[in-house]
Write a structure and sequence with these properties.
Length: 196
Amino acid sequence: MARPRKQEKKQILAAAWELFRVQGYEASSIKHIERATGQKAGSLYNDFGSKQGLMAQAVEAYIVDVVRPRIEKHLLDPDPLNGIRQLFLSTFNEQAPEIRGCLLTNTATEFANTKGEVSAAVTRGFGELRAGFEKACARAQEMGMATKVLPPQRAADFLLLGYQGILVLARANHSSDDLCNSVEVILQSLQKEPAV
């Protein structure tokens, strides 16, 4: 059987990552994957090697199609602290409660303590988010908007941790008000103290 063309493969991977994001890897049977992608099991195994191979490529596609555009949209904002705020807020303001969630976050918890291509892809995605946070924090410090008590690298680690926490709480249907308050606490920890 011929390999899928680039556009068809992109559509297959997008359908797969959407299924895995909402339902999880283990809960997604081959029948679910066939229905979501419109492909037969034989074609999927031929093209991706295994269910886990499909998952790894789906995570990589998610990084390209979702994570990078979100970093570019929010973390390159001329006001870096506002960009960070908007990225955090978008995790629950732009998604209906029944579909909230991030494939990286969900997969990280499902594949905790495992090694392999799926975990490696998740680690790469987190690395891209962390790098985006680090650059935004460095710009905020250069602009005098953020405290220099936390070096940009440590601030980025803190933001990645907070971001993942917000995603988990959003998925668990915490109220938007509570999530907004948490985002503000996270941002206050970065802001420069006003001069007295």
